[in-house]
Write a structure and sequence with these properties.
- By secondary structure, this protein is an all-alpha fold.
- The protein has 2 domains: about 200 residues, no CATH class; about 270 residues, no CATH class.
- It is built from 19 helices and no strands.
- The two termini are about 40 Å apart.
- InterPro entries: Arsenical_pump_ArsB.
- Pfam families: ArsB.
């Protein structure tokens, strides 16, 4: 057990710090190789672990590719500019709408997509609106926070959701039935807590005339329009895949292929755009230090309104760099890290956690939800939510709870793994990258500052969300 724990800590340290730019996938695979060499895990465990993570990993990569392509087309900037105009110059209304927009993006494009793509767009919008640093800080923190706290509603909204749903054989429709209302509770609680915490920082008014026209954000009109069709097919496919026994990775993969093919079509001349404006349009860089071309491009967009229409009628997206910026390392990370975690289970951690979860279950619904949710949240904040979710799943499965208690514990572990990472910077890899992107934009947030804000915001939202889960599951069971 001690050896397995040391291997886990060493692997997680390499994943978080990434010395000399070492990818998270190679770090995790190194830990897995060490676990195999020392007998902590057996080669016969590899197919078992891959069977747990392959669908989740492939779905996650496909969804992120869709979000990157749509971001290159201007979809998210277009939405953000519309939302800013709907605020009608009211700072509080703008704050509310940005939080709701973040929740909507997180539900479909996962928490990583919402935090890493929307945050730079919001950041640039705040600069255009001439918000003071204190106000900009409030909006940026809110965007990052809500990306995780509302990544509950669908299986695809967070990688840990997919892992848990696959492990316990929860269908897409059943998961949505349970977690969509619970996510609305989490959204309401998040907005309430954020409003209270930043009540003195949110400006009373802002000048809408400083914003660009939403149409100016669209850089590939056909991809922009096709994106809405692809998203409709994607959501319909998720629900249809369950009864047909089709993995959701297949649905997400086909939709990702379709939108990439549309974006990669042969470029044509500009239409409805003056040469001077066309020349000013930024081209996507060949690579991005932050690991995402979409993040880098979004962070550099000009948000002042141009004098002429700015969309293009044919393909203008450099698909190659977008595909290269997709999180391919997550494939290696999932297999490697989960093998290391599986080794912890083999060495006795599963039995230990099973006893703890069984004790929670014996205390009734509230104890099962509160105990499981807060334990998983605490583990996620310290150990990272990716390995924690599999440890929790193994423990809950071994606890042998049944009926409503078992279901409460399963969904509470998802809530804990989704919200717990907001307590500390190391709770999720997306948070670490998000902080890096902000640092590059001149907004440095120290780990101490993040922790002080994160724990104050997260704990009440977590408690309210778990109560909502118990109430809703009791009602529909």
């Amino acid at each position: 057990m001690l050896l397995a724990l040391l291997i886990f800590v060493a692997t997680l340290t390499l994943v978080i710090w990434r010395p000399r730019g070492l990818g998270i996938g190679w770090s995790a695979l190194g830990g897995a190789a060490l676990a195999l060499a020392t007998g902590v895990v057996q080669f016969s465990d590899v197919p078992t672990v891959w069977g747990i993570v392959w669908n989740a990993t492939a779905t996650f990569v496909a969804v992120i590719i869709i979000s990157l392509v749509l971001d290159e087309a201007g979809t998210f900037e277009w939405a953000a500019l519309h939302v800013a105009r709907w605020g009608r110059g009211n700072g509080t209304m703008l704050f509310n709408l940005i939080v709701v927009l973040g929740a909507a993006i997180a539900s479909v494009f996962a928490n990583d997509g919402a935090a890493l793509i929307l945050t730079p767009i919001v950041f640039q919008m705040l600069i255009a609106l001439k918000f003071p640093p204190k106000a900009a800080f409030a909006f940026v923190i809110a965007t990052g926070f809500v990306a995780d706290t509302t990544s509950l509603p669908l299986v695809v909204s967070n990688l840990v959701n997919i892992v848990t749903a696959d492990f316990f054989n929860i269908g897409f429709a059943r998961y949505a039935l349970v977690m969509v209302p619970v996510s609305l509770v989490s959204l309401a609680a998040s907005l309430l807590v954020l409003r209270l915490y930043f009540r003195k920082s949110i400006p009373a008014t802002y000048d809408v005339t400083h914003l660009a026209a939403p149409a100016s954000a669209i850089r590939d009109l056909l991809t922009f329009r096709a994106g809405w069709v692809v998203l409709a097919v994607l959501l319909a496919g998720y629900f249809a895949a369950d009864p047909l026994g089709i993995p959701i990775a297949a649905v997400a993969g086909l939709c990702a292929t379709a939108i990439v093919a549309i974006a990669a079509r042969r470029p044509a001349p500009l239409f409805g755009r003056s040469p001077s404006v066309a020349a000013a349009a930024p081209e996507p860089p060949a690579s991005s230090p932050s690991g995402s071309v979409a993040v880098q491009v979004a962070a550099e967009r000009v948000t002042t309104a141009p004098t002429t229409a700015t969309w293009r009628t044919r393909g203008t997206i450099a698909v190659g760099p977008v595909l290269r910026s997709a999180p391919w390392q997550i494939v290696l990370f999932s297999l490697g890290m989960y093998l290391v975690v599986y080794g912890l289970g083999n060495q006795g951690l599963t039995e230990t956690l099973a006893g703890v979860f069984a004790t929670f279950g014996d205390g009734g619904s509230l104890a099962a939800a509160g105990g499981t949710g807060f334990l998983v949240a605490g583990m996620s904040s310290v150990l990272n939510n990716m390995p924690t979710v599999l440890v929790a799943a193994l423990g809950i499965d071994a606890a042998a709870a049944t009926g409503l208690t078992h279901e409460i514990m399963v969904y509470s572990s998802v809530i804990g793994a989704d919200l717990g990472p907001k307590i500390t910077p190391i709770g999720s890899l997306a948070t670490l990258l998000w902080l890096h992107v902000l640092d590059r934009k001149g907004m440095h947030i120290s780990w101490g500052t993040y922790f002080r804000i994160g724990i104050v915001l997260t704990l009440p939202v977590l408690a309210i969300t778990l109560l909502g889960l118990v109430a809703w599951l009791t009602l529909i069971s």
